[in-house]
Amino acid sequence: MGVEDRDRKTSNSLKITEDGNSSEFTTKKQPSKRKLSVEKVKVPDIEDKDPDHEVNFDKDENLFGTFENENDSSDEDGDDQASNFDSGSEDEPIFGTSDGESEDLSFEDDSEDANESHSENDETKPNGVESSSKADDNKLKRFSKRFQNVTSISNKQDSGDGQFKTMDSNSKKAKSKKRKSTGGRFVKPDTESVLCGETEKEKSDESEDEQDTERGVGEVKDDDVMPNKIVLEKKKEYDEYEEDDTSDEEDIRNTVGNIPMNWYDDYPHVGYDWEGKKIIKPPKGDELDNFLKKMEDPNFWRTVKDPQTGQDVILCDADAELIQRLQNHKIPDSDFNEYGPWIEWFSSEVMKTPLRKFPDQKRSFIPSKDEARQVGRIVHAIKMGWIKPRVEKPKEPQFYMLWEGDDTAEHLRRIHNHIPAPKRNPPNHAESYNPPPEYLFDEKELKQWKNMKRTPSQRKVHFIPKKYASLREVPFYDRYVQERFMRCLDLYLCPRAIKMRLLIQPEDLVPKLPSPKDLQPFPTTLALVYKGHTNMVRCITVEPKGQYLASGSDDLTVKIWEVATGRCIRTIPAGGIVRSISWCPNTALSLLAVAADRKLLLINPEVGDSLVVKKTDALLEEAPEQDVLLPEKVKAAVQWEQVSAKGDEWKKGIRVVINHFKEIKQVTWHGRGDYFATVMPEGQSRSVVIHQVSKRRSQIPFNRAKGLVQCVLFHPIRPIFFVATQKNVRVYDLVKQEIVKKLLSNSKWISSIAIHPGGDNILVGTYDRKILWFDLDLSTKPYQTLRFHGHAVRGVAYHKRYPLFASSSDENCVIVSHGMVYNDLLQNPLIVPLKRMSYHEPVNDFSVFEVLFHPSQPWLFSSGADGTVRLYT
Predict the structure, then answer these.
(1) Domains in the chain, start-ordered, CATH in brackets?
(2) Nearest-CA neighbor of 8 among 226, 232, 231?
(3) How do residues 691-722 score in pLDDT, each as one tens digit?
(4) Cα 776–Cα 779–Cα 780 angle in degrees, nearest 5
């Protein structure tokens, strides 16, 4: 008989009243083959009992439930009682509630035994209700647990999601104080269960009770309601913390996420906080601070750095103990007993059926009789003396040499590395009986070979090559015996040694330099040619703002050019060969220092801002009063001459003339623009003179000559003065008035000098084709010696903003190189040659005299013997 047949045989009804917490289930039976047995089970009292709440289960009443909103109205009579229902949570089952006693339902089969037991129950008990088997008893116990669980759920009526309504039925009055109740089972969608019984066999495991209790109850739909069954739908919520989020991430300040923290090594911050602000890295101490912490901090050994914030974190005792146990190869948990009783996971439960379809053979677990017979035969043979053990041979006595050395002992001699004799060189083409014609001696080579009779070791070939028509015509070699004898002498008289051969790839000897494309920008092409001078241009200078260019030539003139257009703005006669020219670095003055033979001219080029031009004229128009008496040594070397404002020289732009007693080779300005120095190589102790424009006075810093001075230079930041003699560079401190160091150039003649804008590196050009890079913080010897040129180097220059330097030589070329100086003192400068440009034309073995960078752009100027100035961009 099926489940649906049982439902038709038995009709049930359920009535729920919620005037109180009491409920009653009643069951009425109709004549059928299936008998219903009910056993009363005592249920503990539940808090907040209400006697008016009852649930009746009567005949001819179908049970079905719905969830409706509170605003919905029922079509049934007003006598129906509606109870506000609150499920509490999705995981709690919904059943009827009762207080006092509850009756669980059990079902009997349609067999005769079941009928007999039912009749006996009617005779023995007044109610005629009794359980028929242990399975039914277990079922009643589980049903009681469910019933108690539902009672606690139905009491939660503070905020109900809907109303649970039942069909109208005749109200039943309680016949006794002990109300009866029976439960119906709610099932999920696609699952049907009959209210009044189950025919399937129930399992006896208590785990099923727990699963049934924890099974969730969802929403009851009107469309799915059918007689004698309730269909529920599981309503699943989305848990936002179910997948990846953990509560450990709630207190994290750094919001970068799970990324490698080494991405922030080159940044000053380590991440971002919840407000989007940068989390700055904490200050890092050096090795000395680390050592002091190690000596003073007792928690140093348990301090680690948090990669998320960069802060130091002190490990607790539990973490430290865990790390120590892991380092000692122990189990992390100290409370874990590794020698505890073994749990037999696979053999503890005896299966009712085997895993394999075929049972094992009997011989697989019974000792072999054949092997037993064979062992018995061997034992009997040993007892009878038929099998005898092998007799060990007596060991012979071993003798050794008393005074034997390591070289004579065979086992020790093999330890030493054996050096085989070198093989003879294989024969070449000259030793052939029919050599090529180029290997045969002519009369000159034969004469030279015979003249080396006294020194045969210098001969390239120890025989005279000869040519024969066939191999049969080759005579006996007369030097065969002698060569064999010499070979034998080499084998047993010459000592042998292993010569280690270094296998070095040529690519490993060349330093790995970055590509020039990665080092842009730098000048690569010729952009402009400034033409106008009639003789070689020896010197050039650029205005501090980079708008104008001045050049001095052997045609006794100084020309002012506009950089962008190449137009010559002014031509100023200098009255002599211009060997050096320099623009004042002070932007508040429009002043140009020109060295022409023995005169130094201070010229106002009258270009640029008109206010600056007028201010410069006002400053140089009148000479200030001399409040200090100049020594006779200075007066004899230098005389200041004021140019009249009404004279012709003033109209040309000349403002002040300083007469020197020797020819001036170089003029250079101090960084502030008030002092400048001149060099006279033939002046001996008065070779260097320092002038001050504001006070119109000069001074000679050195009392005696320490070499032939070639050029001088002021430090861009510190009060340091560089003096380049013919072979060395001396560094002087102007405040202490003493020499700081002496740079050794290891060259014959220094031609030019340039200093890096940072002030720690110096570039020196020499006439012996070398460029010397000095690192003042490293050593007094050159850090790098660059041999880029094949002729004398005449000019070197650094760029003020870009990591570039250039050099010019008499081989008609200008070389631009990359020279990066790092702030880290532990990292050496990076020098990479970039571009070689040859555009000047040589004249009388002279080519390019001077190179100069633009103050703000990556442009390069060069002056040459061909009378032109060229711009490279």
Answers:
(1) 3-233 (no CATH), 253-312 (no CATH), 535-793 (2.130.10.10)
(2) 226
(3) 998 888 899 988 887 888 999 999 999 999 99
(4) 85
